[in-house]
Amino acid sequence: MLFERTQSLSLAELGLIHQASMKVLAESGIRFSDAETQEVFKNHGFKVDGSQVYFTEGQVLKALESAPDRFMFHARNPENSRWVGRNDYALAPTYGPPFIILPDGTQKSGTLADYQMAVKLVQTSPVIDFHAFKYLAPSDIPAATSYLDMVRAALVLSDKPLMGSTDHKRAAENTMKILELVFGEKYLDDHPVTMGLINPLSPLSYSSEMSSSILAFAARRQPVIIHNMIMAGASGPIRLPSLMALINAEVLGGIVLAQLVNPGTPVVYGSNSCPIYMKTGGGECASPQSMWIFSAVTQLARYYSLPCRTGGSLTDSHLPDGQAMTEGSLTMVTTIRNGANIVLHAFGQIACFIGISFEKWIMDEELAGYMRDLCKQYPVTPETLDLKAIIETGSGGSYLTRKETAKLCRESFYKHFIFNKYDESGWKKEGALDMVTKAQKIIEKRIGDYKTPDLDANLVKDIDNLVAKMKAAHI
Fold first, then answer.
1. Residue range 64-374, CATH number
2. What is residue 28's DSSP assignment?
């Protein structure tokens, strides 16, 4: 019998977490600061006391009934559309870092050109499935309207699926209006073409910006990831089972809201919660406890038959070094093998979400390729057993000259593109390069070879005109 040495929660344990969360939702409730959000709950019979909203188990379970367990994330190029949920998963780069981190650990502010480079790296990647939106905060354009330039870049410079802005309700609604130009107004009502990341304000609160963005995305039945990052021992309990009860209560509160606004809106259950590092008071995103949390989160999502988002190639290191790749590999293996369906921070995350490292991004692409191959299935059949080859080759023979080896050699094994697999002489012949240098050369080539995907020139003008009009309205 196969077995797993890390903890797999039993149905009884998941049930205990569920019941604990129901008690929290019923007795403590969740604070929603937005008045419009409060009215949604009132209109559906929820107990609302000022900004505090209380949930019964029946209300939660009824709302969950309409949430789909799988949906198609549509791209403007249908070949790049991806299923999300059940056994399918999609990968995206890191989200939200304020800085670019250079190979020596130096932090620098990013520009719109840097952001556009990130979009081009997504477009040219064989393993990245969609855009994570906030790769960095461009410092050379107005912050209030930078989200418009980000949406425009992901839509025009790439034909893969993209996340939209949840900075506030207006930003969410403007995201929809831009996408309507490309996909059509009615298309959005039953085709997920963007996704919004919603972060509760832990413990047990939703800011006006977050809950109003849920309203805007759900109104168009566009998916939302309800995702918290609670720090155990600071913004959440230090005991991990207790932390899971809080995680669950917060996430379910946002999921319920989305279903009240528009039943059937795709929702993704998520958390990147982690312990606090007691020596500094900061988060420790790549600890063994973090990985236990990622595993528990995916199990809770399945308990409710919902797609899940957690983990990524996470590291607390400030350099694209051995620590970064060790922690990144462990978190990615945990996340993918436990069944996450949406993985943000799969590429380039560094320094506990403070920065993006483009060199680590390329290394993470290799890691993602490993994971894709690790998850492949190899059916055992009379053909794949190929006893004839074993018997004919016999003792001391070689399989290198057999016809099936020549036929299958190019497709049977993973093709590395940055990790070294040469002996010393071969490695030296290739330049004896370290990983960072190789990554920089790969970035240079990818950006040099990049070609903008087809998009009607008149449509691009329409997008630019609408973005300009929206920017003017912000002034």
1. 3.20.20.480
2. T
